[in-house]
Amino acid sequence: VTLSLFPGVISEIQSSNGLGSWFPILNLTIFNMFDCFGRIFAGSESFAAYIPRPNGRRILNSRTAKLLGNELNGFWVYIGIPCFARFLFFPLFIYSNELIRSDFLVFILDAVFAFSNGYIACLCFMLGPTMPINEAHKDAASLLLLLACDSGLVAGAVFGNVIHAK
């Protein structure tokens, strides 16, 4: 989802308040800042109390992670659903020049998009390797996560070019 919209579509959004050529630069800067904030927030122990996690923080501890049966329900609630909900950003960004008449609202939309990207990506990479029970499968899970991430980056870049061409 991210590379389909960022940076191609996001940098094409026009300013409605006269920021001109600075608007794409500010948009890209806001994206990078809030993506970083999302990653920091997901991994920070000091914010752990504010992040609803399935079974608390113990899921991040590989010694106690036994994500079988009912324990996987929290994974879909806190990671799966927000991940699929990010598809709602497609129409918002693609039609933002017609729908949104405020630069501030575009910046807010960009910040939420970026924060959710950093947060979800970081949680997936933290939780994914803890899911297999067998220690031998944890390395394979990490490699599969990396393969899925790289495949998503390529697919997003290709799809972004398709969207950008229209």
Automatic annotation (TrEMBL):
Stated membrane topology is: Multi-pass membrane protein
Major place of residence: membrane
- Entries under InterPro entries matching the protein: Eqnu_transpt (IPR002259)
Q: Where in the cell is it found?
A: Membrane
Residues of the signal sequence? none
Keyword terms of this UniProt record: Membrane, Transmembrane, Transmembrane helix, Transport
In the UniProt record, which is one GO cellular component term? plasma membrane
Q: Which residues cross the membrane?
A: 75-95, 104-128, 140-163
Gene Ontology MF term list: nucleoside transmembrane transporter activity
> What is the similarity comment for this entry?
Belongs to the SLC29A/ENT transporter (TC 2.A.57) family.
- PANTHER family referenced in this protein's UniProt entry, alphabetically: EQUILIBRATIVE NUCLEOSIDE TRANSPORTER (PTHR10332), EQUILIBRATIVE NUCLEOSIDE TRANSPORTER 4 (PTHR10332:SF10)
Its protein name is Battenin
Q: In which organism is this protein found? A: Leptocylindrus danicus
